[in-house]
Write a structure and sequence with these properties.
By secondary structure, the chain is α+β, with helices and mostly antiparallel strands. Helix content is 32%, strand content 23%. 45% of the residues are buried.
């Protein structure tokens, strides 16, 4: 048995941003347009008028101030309200592959490794741009890695589930190293016309290199233990899929073909599940809350993270103990906890413990307990 370690991470950040002010202006223009078009039905009581959004509402509900996106022009056009991404030929790299390669190359550079050193690529994301061939295999080809590649989807927990799969393969000796990459174009599955969620998501790609610890060339994080859990729930759901056209109203503009959630139920049910999962994982590995120097949580909602951090540590975490990147990136699904880890881990000292945790639809939760080595 071998010991796996995280030796490098990388983050691809899109060049375009949307501030809350821009988002609110576009949404309110759309709301006004819809209210004008349906004025008679609204006056008759057959339809409710669309309520305006506000910057204050967004920050209070989520802690989000801005987000990065692959295309802002379509999102901010009240006549469109979704990103516009050009159709690519089958001979061109896919947009997810382009994002992923950037993040992977940064992870490899940090670890001092070449693509030829990688035995496996796992593309773990909440959405994939096609059913097949696997996006991971396209990434493998673009990078020039050997071995094999495959896609996996556990929604917002995809990154930690992918790290567990890679760590297990390294631990068993079937591979020496793997890249887990999370290209998330969340702007494409968000319903930007829904006031309750139009501010939630952003786009990004992250990559994590997992290797045998003896192959590490510089500072790294020993993976002490990984743990995953799932429990079925419909409270976060997207009903889009390949069977859509086979159903009577399949191609109509149905609300459930984009991101949907029952936020109150998610808050009530997910928080105890995640808090207990982390606490039991730490307890079983002999790591006390006083031993934990850093908690890199899924970046979905600041209130949720504050609750989990307080439960796990037994007190209100200091900002550096539970870093948030939510205000700048918004919710980036599986990539969020890896952004927080990548940007807020270099300062840890020899032997310091930390825990990466992501959670979301499924319900699903995955945690990775690590120890720093310099």
């Amino acid at each position: 048995m071998y010991t796996p370690a995280i030796t490098g991470t990388g983050v691809f950040t899109p060049s375009e941003t949307i501030s809350n002010a821009e988002l609110v202006e576009a949404f309110n223009a759309y709301a006004d347009k819809m209210n004008t078009a349906n004025a008679d039905a609204i006056a008759a009581g057959d339809m409710e008028a669309m309520e305006h959004s506000s910057e204050e509402f967004i920050v209070k509900a989520s802690g989000i101030e801005s987000r990065f996106v692959m295309d802002k022009s379509g999102v901010l056009d009240p006549e469109i309200m979704h990103p516009i991404l050009r159709q690519r030929s089958d001979d061109e790299p896919g947009i997810m592959t382009e994002m992923a390669v950037d993040a992977c190359e940064k992870a490899l550079a940090q670890a001092g490794k070449a693509a030829s050193d990688v035995d496996a690529v796992i593309c773990a994301a909440s959405n994939l741009e096609r059913a097949y061939p696997a996006v991971a295999i396209e990434i493998q080809d673009a990078l020039g890695t050997g071995g094999f590649a495959f896609d996996m989807n556990v929604a917002c927990s995809s990154a930690t589930f992918g790290i567990q799969a890679a760590a297990d393969m390294v631990r068993s000796g079937s591979i020496r190293s793997a890249l887990v990459v999370n290209p998330e174009i969340c702007s494409a599955h968000l319903e930007w016309r829904d006031r309750d969620c139009h501010f939630i998501f952003g786009d990004v790609a992250t990559a994590t290199l997992i290797e045998r610890i003896e192959d590490a060339k510089g500072p790294h994080f020993e993976i002490l233990s990984t743990r995953c859990a799932t429990q079925f729930s419909n409270n976060i759901r997207n009903n889009n899929g390949f069977l859509r056209r086979s159903r009577p109203d399949g191609m109509t503009d149905r609300r459930d073909m984009q991101f949907m959630q029952n936020g109150r139920k998610v808050f009530k049910e997910v928080l105890p599940m995640v808090s207990q999962h982390i606490s039991e994982h730490m307890q079983d590995e002999g790591v006390s809350n006083s031993d934990l120097k850093r908690l890199w949580l899924h970046q979905a909602n600041k209130t949720m993270n504050d609750f989990i951090g307080k439960k796990v540590l037994g007190r209100t975490p200091e900002p550096e103990e539970q870093p948030n990147i939510l205000q700048d990136y918004a919710n980036t699904s599986s990539a969020g906890s890896i952004i927080a880890f990548s940007q807020n881990s270099d300062d840890l000292g020899e032997g310091d413990h930390g825990l990466i945790c992501s959670f979301g639809a499924g319900y699903s939760v995955g945690s990775v307990l690590v120890r720093r080595h310099i």
